[in-house]
């Protein structure tokens, strides 16, 4: 599968402390697609109220893997909050998969969750409900308004770090320490 690079695909958007939008305050979003029509991404550091076991149960799927069932499902963004998105590595092709890079994919079809429940899914995966979307030129405007920082994505941040450490860690990847910013002073 050939990946057509886009300007911000596979970049992390890191909300600056002054960003007041409750959907994105202190968030980190992976941009999955970006072109002249806009951008789409998944917030990768905000848990939803669900575990993967609860979601699988709602779909009529069972898994004997306790750690898989306990995995938090993320609140991926305010767009299509009823729709599931699986961000994963591996080269397997599922029914509805978009390549972000040669090693990172976004799948929206049920078959990947069925495989995960059977223990046959990708090595690393996060499940999110909803996504983030920006219309044509909207994300570029928000970047010029200093709402976001950008940093390259990496597997450790996406799949290994605890959710509550991702915002500071993403900024740290580009040498930013939010504790030293005026808008962040006084926040724990």
From TrEMBL:
<dbReference type="InterPro" id="IPR003774">
    <property type="entry name" value="AlgH-like"/>
</dbReference>
<protein>
    <recommendedName>
        <fullName>UPF0301 protein P8609_08865</fullName>
    </recommendedName>
</protein>
<dbReference type="Pfam" id="PF02622">
    <property type="entry name" value="DUF179"/>
</dbReference>
<comment type="similarity">
    <text>Belongs to the UPF0301 (AlgH) family.</text>
</comment>
């Amino acid at each position: 599968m050939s990946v057509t690079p886009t300007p911000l695909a596979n970049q992390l958007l890191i909300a600056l402390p002054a960003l007041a939008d409750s959907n994105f305050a202190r968030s980190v979003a992976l941009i999955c697609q970006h072109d002249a029509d806009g951008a789409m991404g998944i917030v990768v550091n905000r848990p939803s109220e669900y575990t993967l076991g609860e979601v699988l149960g709602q779909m009529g799927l069972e898994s004997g893997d306790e750690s898989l069932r306990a995995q938090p499902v993320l609140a991926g963004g305010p767009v299509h909050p009823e729709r599931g998105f699986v961000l994963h590595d591996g080269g397997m092709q599922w029914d509805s998969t978009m390549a972000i890079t040669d090693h990172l994919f976004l799948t929206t079809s049920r078959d990947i969750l069925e495989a995960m429940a059977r223990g046959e899914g990708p090595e690393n995966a996060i499940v999110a409900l909803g996504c983030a979307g920006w219309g044509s030129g909207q994300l570029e405007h928000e970047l010029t308004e200093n709402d976001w920082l950008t940093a390259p994505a990496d597997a450790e941040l996406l799949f290994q770090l605890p959710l509550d450490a991702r915002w500071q860690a993403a900024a740290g990847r580009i040498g930013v320490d939010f504790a030293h910013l005026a808008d962040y002073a006084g926040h724990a």
